[in-house]
Design brief:
Length: 300
């Protein structure tokens, strides 16, 4: 009799224990999933309004740590870390490129700015040309930002060169647009092909002598093996570097579209105003040229 009563009791107890174990496992799984989610998982791609171009010190986006190249979102609030501000804010700096065409900067060089948060607003025109440029640059910049920023050599006599999109036809290209601000004279030009995946140069390079005449805009025609993305360096005849820039060489059928797209990036850097460093402008233009090279068949 006792055995008959005990059997269903044991079965019922077993079911309760099994259900309790399953519930514990479910709760453990849910907590693990939630813990693994990134801090800004509540933001959607549609709310991206820019990225962090430069950052030193500790900075927060809605309380979560930021890093260079990271996306920033509409409605977010960017502030310097209170701990960093209290300890040593002397190196605190952040520059944010916004898809609206604006840039925000906070720096210890202007101490009053550190107490002013960056309030990020929703884009009024999320599909604008500036937004396309900023989103494209961010997708590359976040991986290795330092590869796009020019390294300035102390004592280098520098010429102001401008990144550009130029045509490649019948094995030659004309670099006149690159020489616009270069004084008349004889130069040595070195072109080194950049890999499509990144900014590291291949072992192949081309050298050419250029007798530049700005009034006639002549002398900058160079022979090359193939279109693509190149680093162009200008040197004096003793091979001392004078300046460098990146250039995208396109076949005629793709030149117009690439030039128009790159024009949006140029306009963006002009919109920033005169107080922005050449390094910052070069970095954005170089990253966007690489993006175009990766996405323009006629440049392959």
């Amino acid at each position: 009799m006792i055995a008959r009563l005990a059997i269903p009791l044991i079965k019922g107890l077993g079911k309760l224990l099994a259900q309790s174990a399953a519930a514990s496992l479910l709760l453990f799984w849910l907590s693990s999933v939630l813990a693994a989610q990134p801090e800004n998982s509540s933001h959607s791609d549609a709310s991206v309004v820019g990225y962090v171009f430069k950052m030193t010190g500790e900075w927060l986006q809605d309380g979560s740590p930021l890093k260079q190249g990271e996306r920033v979102f509409a409605g977010a609030r960017i502030t310097v870390s209170p701990d960093a501000l209290a300890q040593d804010p002397s190196d605190a700096e952040i520059i944010v490129h916004l898809a609206s065409g604006q840039r925000e900067e906070r720096s210890a060089k202007n101490p009053g700015s550190l107490s002013e948060p960056i309030e990020l607003e929703l884009l009024k025109t999320p599909d604008s040309g500036f937004a396309k440029v900023v989103n494209a640059v961010q997708s590359l910049f976040v991986k290795q930002p330092e590869r796009y920023i020019p390294v300035m050599t102390r004592g280098q006599r520098s010429q102001t060169l401008q990144e550009a999109v130029v045509t490649f036809q019948n094995g030659t290209t004309n670099l006149t647009s690159l020489f616009e601000s270069v004084p008349q004279g004889k130069y040595l030009v070195r072109l080194r092909a950049l890999s499509v995946e990144g900014a590291s140069a291949t072992s192949l390079s081309n050298k050419a002598n250029v007798d530049w005449n700005p009034s006639a805009k002549s002398g900058a025609k160079i022979s090359l093996a193939a279109p693509g993305l190149y680093r162009v360096s200008i040197l004096d005849l003793e091979e001392r570097p004078l300046g460098s820039a990146w250039v995208l060489l396109c076949k005629p059928e793709g030149f117009q579209a690439a030039e128009k797209a790159f024009g949006e990036a140029l306009e963006l850097t002009k919109k920033w105003g005169a107080g922005v460093s050449d390094e910052e402008r070069h970095a954005l233009l170089r990253a966007y040229l690489e993006y175009l090279a990766n996405n323009t068949r006629s440049a392959q």
